[in-house]
Amino acid sequence: MHELVLTGAVVTCAGVLRDGWIAVDHGRISRFGQGTPPQAVATEDHGDSLLLPGGIDAQVHSRSQKGQEDFIWTTRSAAAGGITTIADMPYDDGFLVCTAERLALKAREAAAQARVDFALWGTIAPADGPVHIADMAAAGACAFKFSTFGTDPERFPRIPADLLAECFSAVARCGLAAGVHNEHDGMVRAHIRRVAASGVTDWRAHGLSRPPLSEALATAEIYEIAAATGCSAHVVHASIARGYELCAAYRRQGFDTTIEACIHYLTLDEEHDVARLGGKAKINPPIRPRSEVEGIWAHLVAGNVSVVSTDHVSWSEGRKTSPNMLENASGAPSLEVLYPLFLTELSRRGLPASLAARLLAENPARLFRLSDRKGGIAIGRDADITVARPESWIYDPRASGNAFATWSPYEGRTLEWRIAATYLRGQRIFDGARVLATPGTGRFVTPEGRGA
Q1: For residues 247 and 435, what is the distance between their CA atoms, to the nearest angstrom?
Q2: Is the dihedral of CA 25, 353, 400, 203 positive or negative?
Q3: Residue 140 φ/ψ region, left for φ over 0, alpha for ψ in the -120 to 50 degree band, beta for the rest
Q4: Is residue 115 within 8 Å of 439, Cβ to Cβ?
Q5: Is residue 301 within 8 Å of residue 344, measured between CB atoms?
Q6: Handedness of CA 262, 263, 266, 267 (dihedral sign)
Q7: pLDDT digits (tens, 9 = 90+) for 63-119
Q8: Torsions phi, psi of 31, nearest 5?
Q9: What is the DSSP letter of 178?
Q10: pTM score, two decimals?
Q11: CA distances (Å), 335 to each of 87, 245, 262, in order?
Q12: Which residues pair with 85 in a beta bridge?
C-alpha cells in the first residue's frame, strides 16, 4: 500500500510509458511502471497527460536587480512552470557570491523564501583568485561560474585566461564543473566601438556588436583550458551551432565538456523576434538568425546539446525598452514557460518528450552532481514530477499572477502544452492555476556529501 500513486503517460529518458503510473512513499519514487497501478492511500489520475521529471533550471538569476523578484518570485514562477529545482547564479546585485560565508548566507536567505528546491553556483572575486573555491565546494556550491567577458568589474567580472586556468584546476580538485560565460572580451569591445561609431542604434546593433566569432573563440579557449587542467567544463549558453560542434569534438577526444542551449536560442530568431521586440529580446550572447536556430536544433537531435535552461532574469521593464539597443540590460524572464515552450517545439518538430526529460532534468542533475536524488523518474529519487497536458493556449505573463515581470518575449505566443500540476518530493505545489507551496517549502540541495 503506497502513500500516493500518480497515473498518466510516464516520461523517462528512454521513452514514454503510456498507461503508466508512479508510486511515491516518503517523498521519493518507490516504483513506476505501466498497466494496472498498485494500491495507494491516494491515487491521482492525470489521464493522458505527461508525467515528466520535475525540471532543473541550470541558470537562474534571482537577484540581478535589487528590489525585483528575489527567490520569493523566481521559485513561484518555477513551481508554476513545472521546475522543481533552480540553480541560481552568483552575480547578485551588490553581493558577489565568492566565499563560503557568502554562499551560506545566500542559502539561508533563499531557504526562507523558496517554494521549490534550489542549488547555488559560486564564483570568485578576481583579486582573490581560487583561494575560496575549496571552501565554497565544501559549503555546498553546485558548480562554479566564470566569465571571459567583463559585464561589470564588481558584479560580473572578466576572468583572464591565466587566472581561469588556476580556477579550473581548483574546481577539478573538488570534483565539480566550471561553467563559463563565453564571449571574447577584446573582440566584443572592439565591435561595440565600431557599432557606436557607425550610428546604428536599433535592434541590429546588439548582434553586430557581438559577432559569432567572438563566441566561438571564447568557447574554444574554455575547452582548451579544461583539456589542460582536467576540469569538467560547461559552456553556459551557446547561440551558434559552431559552439556545439566544438563541444562534441572535445568530447570525442575524451574530455568532459558540456554545453547549454537556453530556450530563447531554440525559439526566437533575430530577423523576426529581435526586430519586433527590440530590447526585450536583448540577451548575451545575442539571439541569432534563423539559420543558427535550426543549426542548434540539428545538434540537439544529434545529441550534442547537454542542457536546456532559461538564463532567467526579470529586469524592470524600464531597463529593457530603450530605443538604443545597446543601452538595454541583457536577459529575459522565462521560468514559467520553459517546459511548455520546449514541449511545444518538440511536438511541432515530431520529436519525443523523452528529450525534455533528458535535457531539463537528467543532464542538469548530472552536471550539478545531484543525481543521487534529482533528475528523473527513477526509484529512490525525489518525487519531483511535472504534469503537462496537451492544450492550445496563448501566453500572457500578466494572466497567471505567478510571474514577477509583466513583460515577456514570449507574450502572445501560442503554446501546445500547459502545466497541469507540479509535485515536489511528492507534495503538490501547483494545481494548474495556483502555486500551493509557501515560502520555506524549498530546500538547499547540494552535491552528494557536501554542504547542508
Answers
A1: 38
A2: positive
A3: left
A4: yes
A5: no
A6: negative
A7: 999 999 999 999 999 999 999 999 999 999 999 999 999 999 999 999 999 999 999
A8: -155, 160
A9: E
A10: 0.97
A11: 12, 27, 11
A12: 56, 117
Q: What is the mean pLDDT of residues 43-51?
A: 97
Query: What is the amino acid identity at position 151?
Result: T
What are the backbone angles phi and psi of residue 274, rounded to the nearest 5°?
-65, -40
C-alpha–C-alpha distance, residues 281 and 373, integer Å: 35
Nearest residue to 33 via CA among 3, 10, 4: 10
Backbone angles phi, psi at 380, to 5 degrees: 95, -15
Judge whether residue 452 has pLDDT over 90: no
Which whole number is the average pLDDT over 413-421? 98
**Nearest to residue 397, comparing CAs of 386, 387, 409, 408?**
408
What angle, rounded to 10 degrees, do the helices at 290-302 and 241-252 form? 30
Which is nearest to 234 in space by CA: 96, 368, 92? Answer: 368
Query: Do 77 and 406 meet the contact criterion of CB atoms below 8 Å apart?
Result: no
Q: Which 3 state secondary structure label does DSSP give 424?
A: strand
Cα(8)–Cα(116) distance, integer angstroms:
23
**Distance between CA 64 and CA 293 in Å, rounded?**
27
Residue 2 main-chain phi, psi, to 5 deg: -85, 160
State the pairing for strand pair 307-309/257-262. Answer: parallel
Residue found by looking up cell 564588481 in the block: 154
